[in-house]
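Handover notes (outgoing to incoming on-call)

Open items:
1. PmbA protein: sequence verified, structure written out, both below. Nothing else pending on this one.
2. Nothing else urgent.
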Amino acid sequence: MLTPDQARDRAHDIVARAKAAGADAADAVFAADASLDVSIRLGKLEDIGRSESEDLGLRVFVGKRSASVSTSDLSSAAMDALAARAVAMAREAPEDAWAGLAPENRLLHGVPPMLGLADHGEVSPEQLRDAATAAEDAARAVPGVTNSEGGGASASSSVWALATSHGFAGAYASTAYGMSASVLAGEGGAMQRDYAYHSVRHRQHLESPEAIGQRAGEQAVARLNPGRLASGPMTVVYDPRVGSSLLGHLIAAIAGQAITRKTSFLLDSLGSQVFAHGITIRDDPHRPYGLRSRPFDGEGLPVSPTAIIEHGMLESWLLDSASARQLGLEPTGHAARGVNGAPGVSTSNVFMEAGTMPPETLIEDIVSGVYVTELMGGGANGVTGDYSRGAAGFRIENGVITGPVAEFTIAGNAKDMFLAMTPANDLEFRYGINVPTLRVEGMTVASG
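PmbA protein structure tokens:
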């Protein structure tokens, strides 16, 4: 795999070729990835997969017309042909008044922050096999576990580079390691499935396979013999594993494209209270070893920690350059770019700050409620905020989490849910989006 410097030079080279072919401006992305994954089922090796890829994406501008092309053929002749084809396509494209590179005066200059995204270690297929086996063995050893969907372990490394014709060229490397186990408990039609996994940047930070497997097994057994909930209004408590999805609806609603197209249920909410007063939500691209950390955004702009929600108030849209121009605002450093097409918008390490009470205190006054550990289908309507999802979890009775329940739907409206939300104090950073245990009042539960 290329080094970050070599990847940056590749991206810079195709930009220069595009300019020579007649482009007024251009930017390019180079992305390379190598991954190895091993899966085990019932103690036997099921699959070993290895993949490698190198791809390059080029976007060119001729006036206000633009075109994007991509290739995995990185020969010099192919690069010249790619640049010429992109320019020819742009000349035939319709004009876009908002298209263009990021503002030159906003580009990142100097040395990007060091975020510890790559550990540069080596891992063998045998090491991954042993880890996957240990995770599955630990899950199968839990009393009540009767079958397995397998244990898995993976390792990958990647490099990502961006270059623009108006002065930016940067690149960075990253690694990722993962481990999982998925098992079933019970017999016949009464079987229940659950899983556990962990993903990190540095292998030394990975949970032990035994801990991951044991958690998967215990969670599967805990779901045996689920009952049914009565339908009606109810307090819903979200486990952190699934509560993060609620912030996904927020992020989609404040992304620049949703605002410019007027397709957001938060369209007129900037600067107003959209969450309960005690809630603060931040985006931290500089978090060391973060799963979504990055030193610059998809247009070459610097990134910095941002308060999206401060004490319940919506503080910012998430804008790339095109949506910012359309709204008459400044880009926020949230542009995201793949090798195909124009930039979109993406957050980095989003998290809701922890509340003040432990989960046990959060639920102790709930006479009848539900603790949700799994969500299925549905989501929030981007325009109206109407929310409906299938779910499974556990009853809350007189302040105590009791037996499992399944086959029910929870519904509400995202705007109402945000205002009726209370976080516990158990925030952990395990995913790309992290939340503590969340309590939401006034949901509607319908039993299947």
